[in-house]
Amino acid sequence: MIPLSIPNLQGNEWAYIKECLDTNWVSSVGSFVNRFEDALKSFTGASYAVACVNGSAALHISLKLSGVGPNDYVLVPNLTFVASVNTIKYCNADPILVDVDPTTWQMDLDLLESFLQKDTFLDDKGDLRLKKDQKRIKAIMPVHVLGNMLDMEKLVSLGQEYHLKIVEDSTEALGSYYNQKHAGTFGLLGCISFNGNKIITTGGGGMILTNDEQIAIQAKHITTQAKADPNEYFHDQIGYNYRLVNLLAAMGLAQMEQLPSIINRKKEIDLFYKSYLSPISGIVFQQHLEKTKANNWLFTFQSDYKKELLTFLKNENIQARPFWVPMNQLPTFQNCLYLQHTNQSNRIYERAVSIPCSSGISNAELDQVQAAINQFFKTIK
Ligand SMILES: *Cc1c(COP(=O)(O)O)cnc(C)c1O
User: Fold this and answer.
1) Which atom of ligand 1 is nearest to the CA of 54?
2) CA torsion sign, 259 to 260 to 266 to 270?
3) Rounded to whole angstroms, what are the CA distances from 106 to 141, 169, 180, 210, 277?
4) Could you report the per-residue pLDDT of 263-320, keeping only the tens digit for each?
C-alpha cells in the first residue's frame, strides 16, 4: 500500500527524544519546549510562539485571547476541517459559515465583503453587529486550506475596517507565505498543528504565533493552568493543561531541522503530479494567487469521477482520500448561518481527491500513482 501522507523521521528525532528520557525531562518543563518555540519564531518571523498540546487547543486559546465569548459570532470558511469550527463552539460562540472561492478553495472574500457591507453595522462602542439579531461579530478565522492562502492584504484591511480580530487557522500552512510573509503572522494570532498527517509532526502538537507581547504572555499563562505564583498554587483565572510536553517538543525540534528539505520534496511532488495529470481532461487543481507561495502539503485535485477513482485506487493499493464534508452539512452546524451564492464548498467536496504525497515517497511510487490514475481515466472514456 502506498500511504497518503506519513511522517518523515529521518533526522534527530530519536536522539533528541532519547536525551529527554536519559535526563528525565519528559514533561511540560524542559529545554526542548523553548528551543522548539524559538525554531518556530525564527522560521516564521513571528515575535512570539507558544507550544500547545495540539492545533485545536491553540485555536481555542487564540479565540479566547481575541475576546471571543458567549453569543459572539466568528466568520469561518464552510470548507474546513471540523476542528476550526468546533473551537468556536468551545468559546460558546457561533460560526457564520462563508462559502469558498472555486479557484483557491479558500474563504470567498468578495462574498464576505458584501455580507459585511449589507448585513452588519458598527455600534457606538465600535463592535460589529449582525443586523438581523444585533449579536456581536468578534473575529474572522481564515483557514489556509491545504497550505494555500487567500488575499491577506484584503483580509487584513477588512478586519481593520470592520473591527474584526483575525485568528488564522494556519494549521496546514507551516512553510506557506503570502507576499513573503509567513502564514499565521498576519492576524492577531495564528495557529500551527503538528498532528500526524501535517507537513511535520510531533505525533500531536500545536503552536500559537503572535506579534503581541501581552497576548503571548497570556497564551503561555492560560495554557499552563493560569498559575500566577511561582511557589503557591494560586491561579488567577480558569486555565488549561494545554502545554506541549518536552518529549514531543524534542521531536518537533528535530522535525523543524528537516522542514526545508521536506518543503522542497513537496514542491517536487506537486510539479511531478501536475505534469502527469494536467493532460487528463476534467482534472482541476487548486489555484494559488500570484503572491502566494504554498507549502504543497497535501496533493489534491478535483474530478467528476471522485467515487470511482477512490475505489479504483484502493484496489491498486494506493491510499487516497476524499475531502471534508462541508460544515453546513454536518448535524452540529446545519442550522448555522451560511453565506453562499453557488455552494462551491459542496462542489469541491463532491469532486476532490487527495493522493499519496509523503515527503519520503520514492520516484518509483510517484510514477506508480500517476500511471494508475492515467490508466483509470483511459478506461472510463
Ligand atoms: C489539523 C487541523 C486542525 C487541528 O489541529 P490538531 O493539531 O489536529 O488539533 C484544525 N484545522 C485544520 C484546518 C486542520 O487541518
Assistant:
1) 7
2) positive
3) 11, 12, 19, 22, 23
4) 999 999 999 999 999 999 999 999 999 999 999 999 999 999 999 999 999 999 999 9
Nearest-atom number in ligand 1 for the CA of 58 is 9
- What is the CA(193)–ligand 1 centre distance, in A? 6
Q: What tens digit of pLDDT does each residue of 162-214 get?
A: 999 999 999 999 999 999 999 999 999 999 999 999 999 999 999 999 999 99
User: pLDDT over 90 for what percent of the chain?
Assistant: 97
Q: Residue 206 burial (CB < 10 Å; 0-12/13-18/19+)?
A: buried
For ligand 1, which residues put their CB under 6 angstroms from it? Answer: 54-56, 80-81, 83-84, 143, 169, 171-172, 193, 195, 206
Three-point CA angle 254, 259, 265, nearest 5°: 135
Query: Is the separation of the CB atoms in 303 and 353 below 8 Å?
Result: yes
Measured in degrees and rounded to the nearest 5, phi and psi for residue 199 equal: -65, -35
* 137-140 and 165-169 beta bridge pairing: parallel
Rounded to whole angstroms, how far apart are CA atoms 373 and 133? 50
Ordered alpha helix ranges (H), the chain = 13-23, 31-44, 55-65, 82-90, 109-119, 152-161, 213-223, 246-277, 306-315, 344-351, 363-379
Amino acid at 283: I
d(CA 123, CA 281): 51
Q: Rounded to whole angstroms, how far apart are CA atoms 176 and 229?
A: 39
pTM over 0.70: yes
